[in-house]
Amino acid sequence: SMRGVTGTQRRWGTAGQCVPSTGGHRCPPPRQRFASVPRHVELLVVADEAMARFHGEGLRRYLLTVLAAAARSFRHGSLGNAVELRVTRLVVLGQGTPGPPITPNAAQMLRNFCQWQKGLNVPDEDSPLHFDTAILFTRQDLCGASTCDTLGMADVGTVCDPERSCAIVEDDGLQSAFTAAHELGHVFNMLHDTSPPCRELNGRDSTARHVMAPVLAALEPGEMWSPCSARFITDFLDNGHGT
After folding, report:
1. Is 25 annotated to bind ligand?
2. Which residue ranges does the record annotate as region Disordered (predicted)?
């Protein structure tokens, strides 16, 4: 059975944001040329104690493999923007490094982690300890409001907000790379492909076969990201975010 990929807090009614279906702001026509300046996104990757127990000695290699696959998806041509994900810090929680309280409530877990990661960041972007986004991998079965099918959660459009630029991923094998890419997509302001603004932008395009589909399904190798995802990240970056 397909599992829900995210219970993302949908806070996308921000002032001035172009949402075609509302009729409020006129949307500019799709750009023919995308920004080609690569954006480098520095990641803090955190694994909880259960991850350490489950993966043992292979944990770091496993996490770097998952993140390398997620990074490859952000280099895919269908995104229309050059985004380079870099793991700059990797923290394994345990006896010497206490982490945020672990809970099956996905929304609360995200809040706990966002609050906790603030204390690890260094505002100076030249510092080796600085990161742009934090991502937690947990073996905890995450639950949404009604089911425990949630595989991850993130807020939308938070990459420039150090207090909320974070995501959580329930580790479920190598498909965690897909979940990580999906949640980082939300951090870059992408909506689910089934949302009303996306239905208009995607047209007849199948919404079930891209990274921002709300449930995990077979990906379309040639078109990893939907037209809607490409449009939203382009507008987000063009508005000065993520620089």
Report:
1. no
2. 1-30
Instruction: Give the domain CATH number at 75.
Output: 3.40.390.10
What's the sign of the alpha-carbon dihedral 136, 140, 145, 151? positive
Q: How far is 9 from 154, CA to CA, in rounded Å?
A: 7
User: Is 55 one of the annotated binding-site residues?
Assistant: no
Nearest CA-CA partner of 233 in 216, 210, 209: 210
Predicted TM-score of the model (pTM): 0.82
What domain range includes position 96?
A: 39-190
State how far the Cα of 17 lies from the Cα of 22, in Å rounded to an integer. 10
222 falls within a domain:
no
Number of domains in the chain: 1
183 labelled catalytic: yes
The residue from 42, 125, 170, 183 that is catalytic is 183
